[in-house]
Records
---
Amino acid sequence: MIKKLIILISLIVTYPCFSQNESAYQEGEYLKFRVRYGIFNASYASLVLKNKTYEGKTVYHALGKGETTGLAKLFFKVNDTYESYFDKVTNKPYFFNRNIYEGGYTKKLNFFFNFANNNVHIKNLENNQEKNMPIQPEIKDVISALYYLRNNPKMNTLNINDEVSMDMIFDDDEVFKFRLKFLGREKVDTPLGKIDTLIFRPLVQDGRVFKEQESLTLWISDDLNKIPVKIKASLRVGSLVGEIISFNGLKNPTVLKNK
């Protein structure tokens, strides 16, 4: 559940980038989300952005974490960590780490991107296996994709039902095509107040977790930050709702109405 939330939070807007001076985010940004499954507060997820040095270069380091709480933790423990080191100008990823524990299921993968050769070197830390996969020049991991995609200069000129797509890497065995459809605008009630939002629908693979291909709805702030605000998913069993509950370090003001 946490895994799907973090992926979907990361895939909510479209491309290409602004210049660095017009970026929708900055070092020090912090976002926190509460996830409810039915009537239960099942988990929390967070995203933090900092400056770090990677192979002698100053880059962004984005860290995403998710874990179950309360009764949900007793029945199905989740402790997930995702992190990405990516270029501050181009948003190209240098390194991606996926380290998850979900009800006994684990995955520990490191991805090393080499765009000079258009391949990614993947290390499986659980079985010590390594492999190379060919990639396209604009591919992203699911965390760097959030920050790359938030900088779309055409966000406020999208027409209803416009669709966009991009290549994404998440696991060690495939690159998948992500598709997103713009639905319109809406003022959304959140624990922080009412926020003006843009509404999107990712087109996901049905039959595994989600009820059908269009069973997800996503809301992002209709301002210069373009932060995730809410996600709603119809699952095979029940429904999931995630919403923002706190933020810090935003680059631009976010207007909260009638808190």
---
Amino acid sequence: MHSFNLLAAFGAAAPGPKIMGVDVIWVATIMSAIGVCAIMLVIYGAMTVRDPMAKRVKALNDRREQLKAGITASTAKRRAKLVRKSAHADTMRQFLSSMSVLQDDQIKDVQQKLAQAGIRSKDLAVAVIFGRLILPIVLGGIAVVLLYLTDTYPDLTPVKRNGALMAALLLGYKAPDLWVQNKRAKRTDAVRKGLPDALDLLVICAEAGLTVDAAFHRVSKELGRAYPELGEEFALTSIELGFLTERRMAFENLAYRVNLEAMKGVVTTMIQTEKYGTPLASALRVLSAEFRNERMMRAEEKAARLPAIMTVPLILFILPVLFIVILGPASCALSDALGNMGG
């Protein structure tokens, strides 16, 4: 009975002030709840920070084992896992080959994009090509069922139905490439940010008398937390320098895995120093200065574009809130005054 009285009192309570028909108290309550949830998420993310190099160190150790053993796996369990993956990849490869849609140049291009995205598995290239073929059929079939065979969207015109079907087919075809391109762009940007600092560290290591293998290994350890993607690439290059028969191949693999012209310049410099015996520290110092100037110019370019980019968010989000804060109390007071005059 007491709880019923509380509910009745709550229901009979006078509504709060309204602006444009919206209850201000309810909006403030919802915004406060969203803010509290955001703060809790930030606190959770800050308390559960993981070492970004943990998975990468495991992957590098796996690569070291593969280089030691050639192509075979180091343990029976891993060998069985590789066999299962190869079986799935072979099934997809046979299916694509039977439909004459699988080409060697296409596989090599996808493999390079996957490597530049940080994905080492070569079998996944076949899966990406397989997804280009299967996903349009799957999404297109779902769209046909929802748009034409059932009454899920009865109000759509024929033009909108056809447009939705075409969008589903296009999304299914482009989804694997968009996923790879997104991961590739993020990794390339992360590597670009850390390259000047990495070259400075390489210069210090070279002037201290370390070999190229030891210099790459040392730089990969120092960059592990600040730039984990670049640290992983340098660590893998250090491993390949110690195991591959030709050191040139290790540097070429580094340029193959990183989608940056600057990295290709670094690789060319490293190959020339290995071949002709030119001073490594001076060449890397010049490259580091150029990359730092390029990074500063890129930052200045983004800063110059910032006023134009902020115009639309300013008009859509900031100015309305500012008007509400400034004019809200005055409009509430005016509304109360007019209500009292009318009463």
---
Amino acid sequence: MKKELDRIIRVIQQLNGTDISVYDNSFLSRSIEKRLSVTQCVSIDRYLEFLATNPEEAGLLCRSLIIQFSEFFRNPLTFSLLEQVVLPNLIQKKTSTRQKEIRIWSTACSAGQEAYSLAIIMEEILARSDNKLSYRIFATDLFEAQLDEARRGQFTEASLGQVTMKRLTRWFEKRGNIYNVQQSLRDHIDFSVFDLLNPERFSPPASIFGDFDLIFCANIFFYYKTVYRDIMIRKTGNCLAPNGYLVTGETEREILMNHNYQEICQQSAIFQV
């Protein structure tokens, strides 16, 4: 399959200008097999012919490599620790050192579920205290179309399964069959295009200098080859404020441990250097 993969990688680069060689070979192979099924191509040779006459397929294949699944409050243990321990401690430290803002980066925000979940938690924690601390969430993704969906903040009831009824009532407005995120949450979130593998970009442009107290980079690393995974880990690590936290997916915990990150609580997927 290696030769076939190399051929498709070269063609996609020519047609779309995208280097898909950064992805893990097994993940790339599975994704291509799915596109063969969708396009009803019986072989790699037939698929290459299809690409030649249907150049839009190159874009569809590239889009299929971007995992766009997300949900509110994904990984309950992670979000419980963030709500009860990590974010309250950050707020206390910021207050004691007279700093005025908590900075959070959601590196692959998809339709915005992760960013909105974090905004809900921050609003609720700050509402329980007299603290005047502010916060900003920088939410990034590879595609502007995906970000437009996130900015709209519109969700079906089925996609809000992890949201409690109390939070659903407080932070969403129902219009027909759609739940719209409250504007008060949107005001704290900046959505922008960002590629973690872009060597010319250090952090989201709106953040100016990085220095994030909390970075979510969950369910991304294991889709990439080791060399590119290491680049992303270094980049996010360099953007962390002193004693900041890096959050991964549950299945990526070992990857961070192999980079000398310490998990603050077993199985939490929340790390510090």
